[in-house]
């Protein structure tokens, strides 16, 4: 673990809106606490990073690798018609990449999910099922969190 990772803190808005699932070699894996959509967020554990180009070339490649793996697992696991992957940062400047599995029947289809409908928090039972499903499908090195914030 390098110094930048030791000083890393998750933005409070992400911490309040998400459930920590675990850590990949570079990114923290979050589940957006909105059961309207399968929605994960990757946050590189690098202090001060607000853009992908703030990462080293090796970290950029690692981010793409982790993002691609999460997208593929989500597409398979949630039978997505389309994976929406976005890095906006207008409200939360900390570098983070949204991964949303989309279906024709979802509440916001075909528009964006942001601000369309009020979030519906997951039940603990559903969080546990998603955590187990994702954990069983990831083949890369990852440190999963038995979430203290799962309540």
UniProtKB/TrEMBL annotation:
**A Pfam entry, by short name:** HIT
The family database entries (InterPro entries) matched by this protein are listed as: HIT-like, HIT-like_sf, HIT_Hint
Which Gene3D superfamilies does the record cross-reference, listed alphabetically? Answer: HIT-like
Q: Which GO terms describe its molecular function?
A: catalytic activity
Native species of this protein?
Neptunomonas japonica JAMM 1380
Identify the residues that the record assigns to the HIT domain, covering every copy: 41-109
The protein in question is named HIT domain-containing protein
**What's the domain of life for this entry?**
Bacteria
